[in-house]
Amino acid sequence: MSTVAVVPGSFDPVTLGHLDVIERAAGLFDEVHVVVVHNPGKAALFPIAQRVTLLEQSLSQAKIAGDVVVTSWSVGLLVDYCTDVGATVLVKGVRSQVDVTYETPMAIVNRNLAGIETVFLLPDPAHAHVSSSLVRQVASLGGDVSPYVPAAVADYLAKTELP
Ligand code: PNS
Prior knowledge:
This protein has one domain: HUPs (Rossmann fold, 3-Layer(aba) Sandwich), CATH 3.40.50. The protein has a five-stranded parallel sheet with strand order 3-2-1-4-5, sandwiched between helices. It is built from six helices and five strands, in the order βαβαβαβαβαα. Helix 2 crosses helix 6 (151-158). It has helices spanning 16-28, 48-62, 78-85, 97-114, 132-140, 151-158, and strands at residues 4-9, 31-37, 68-73, 87-93, 117-121. Helix 2 links the parallel strand 2 (31-37) and strand 3. By secondary structure, the chain is α/β, with parallel strands linked by helices. 34% of the residues are buried. It binds 4'-phosphopantetheine (PNS).
C-alpha cells in the first residue's frame, strides 16, 4: 500500500529549508503533496497563488526526485484535505526546540481530529537559521536573500517591489 504524505505550510515564500524538508519527505513517502495553507495567525506577504507558483518553479529547478505535487488549501481543516486525498501523514520540518514546541499541539490535535500522524524531520543544520519571516524582512529592506531561498524566489523578489 502506498503512503501519501502532506507537507503543509505558509511558504511565504518557500526557503531552502523548506526545499530540504520536501526532498527528505519525497525520499520517504510514495506521494507527497506540498500544500500552501492560509495561516490565520500570520499576515501573509504573497498571495497564495504566487506562493504555489514559486514552489512549483523551485521544485522544478531543484529536480527533486519522487512523486511531488503542489497545491493550496484555504477552506476548512488541513486534515480534511488529507482525508480527501488519502494522506495519512503530515510532515513538518523542525529546526529547533522552539519549532517542536510550536508544532506539538497541532500534531496532537490533527491526530485527535482524523488519526493523521505527524512526522517531524530535521533539516540540514545549514538551514537552521532560515525562516520565511527573516527572508521577507531582509528582502523588504533591500538585502540579498539569495543564500536562503531557491533561485526562482530570489529572482522574483529582486524584480518585485515589496511593502
Ligand atoms: O508555515 P506555517 O505558517 O508554520 O504553517 C502552519 C500551518 C498552515 C500548517 C497550520 O497553521 C495549519 O495546519 N493550518 C490549517 C488549519 C487547521 O487545520 N487547524 C487545526 C489543526 S492545527
